[in-house]
Write a structure and sequence with these properties.
Oligomer: single chain
Radius of gyration: 17 Å
Distance between the termini: 11 Å
Shape: globular
Number of strands: 8
CATH topology: TIM Barrel
Order of helices and strands: EHEHEHEHEHEHEHEHH
Helix content: 25-40%
CATH superfamily: Metal-dependent hydrolases
Number of domains: 1
Structural class: alpha/beta
Largest sheet: 8 strands, parallel
Strand content: 5-15%
Number of helices: 9
Strand order of the largest sheet: 1-2-3-4-5-6-7-8
């Protein structure tokens, strides 16, 4: 099984901004050693995803992945609006485990920021170097992302955490429409980080089934470790919950748990053990 979304971070890196002391449960370093100690033995490969909007964090993650066989790919960060972005993207793309970039849309006040013309040179570099985009999105971003997918259909796009439907639970119907529009455009999605406020299985099941129905073979499982520990979950627990609520079995379940991530990120074979 491949965990398509896990983090490491160090509070000592320049520019570290999250988590802060207001989240004491996870306000500490999370290194590969911590991950290996917490990892479920069924998970044999991961995608290591940025958590900081800094070049230092991305460089650190690539250094980690270079020596960690289990970490099959890295999704980093670049200031897409900077004039230097295309050159930076070219440098990152040369790393054998670099797979994509993640603009932290949820932290940007302008919902339509990703459509800004100033980002065009960077987005062309993302496309030309064969990288992907992870969208750290909330429901407010879904209409914008549909427009983005129409314009940049040759940039592979995955929606992290199902666009966090429970951040606006009173607007689940609007979320469902927005998600369906993205699925219809061939966008991918991650089945991760849905239990943002400790939602029980009864609340999660219709959302999980809807994502399974809409995205099919373009849905991939991820844990969001160690952030998921904020709601008392762990990697193995969320793996079991996602398996149960998905209603899938056989080849379809194997695709959710590994095949989709391997295709989307062009990952090598997972490490054994």
């Amino acid at each position: 099984m491949i965990d398509a979304h896990q983090h490491c971070w160090s509070l000592t890196l320049p520019g570290h901004h999250w988590p802060g002391p207001e989240l004491p449960t996870i306000f500490r370093d999370y290194t590969p050693a911590h991950f290996h100690a917490a990892a479920d033995p069924r998970v044999t490969g991961t995608v290591l995803v940025q958590s900081q909007a800094t070049d230092a964090d991305t460089d650190w993650l690539l250094e980690i992945a270079a020596r960690e066989p289990m970490m099959l790919g890295v999704v980093g960060w670049v200031d897409l609006a900077a004039a230097s972005a295309p050159a930076r993207i070219a440098t990152l793309a040369a790393h054998p485990k670099m797979r994509g970039l993640r603009p932290m849309l949820q932290c940007i006040e302008d919902t339509d920021w990703l459509l800004d013309e100033a980002l065009v040179p960077a987005l062309k570099a993302v496309r030309d170097y064969g990288l992907r985009l992870d969208a750290l999105a909330e429901p407010r971003h879904l209409p914008m992302l549909a427009r983005f997918a129409d314009r940049w259909g040759d940039v592979p796009l995955v929606i992290d955490h199902g666009a966090k439907p429970f951040t606006t639970p009173d607007r689940l119907d609007a979320w469902a429409v927005g998600i369906a529009n993205l699925a219809d455009r061939g966008v991918y999605c991650k089945l991760s980080a849905l239990r943002v406020a400790g939602q029980d299985d009864a609340a999660l099941q219709p959302v999980v089934r809807y994502l399974v129905e809409r995205f099919g073979s373009r849905l991939m499982w991820g844990s969001d470790w160690p952030v998921l520990t904020l709601v008392g979950d762990d990697q193995g627990g969320w793996l079991d919950t996602a398996t149960r609520l998905s209603g899938l079995g056989g080849a379809a379940l194997a695709d959710l748990m590994a095949g989709c991530a391997r295709r989307f990120y062009s990952l090598g074979e997972p490490a054994c053990g």
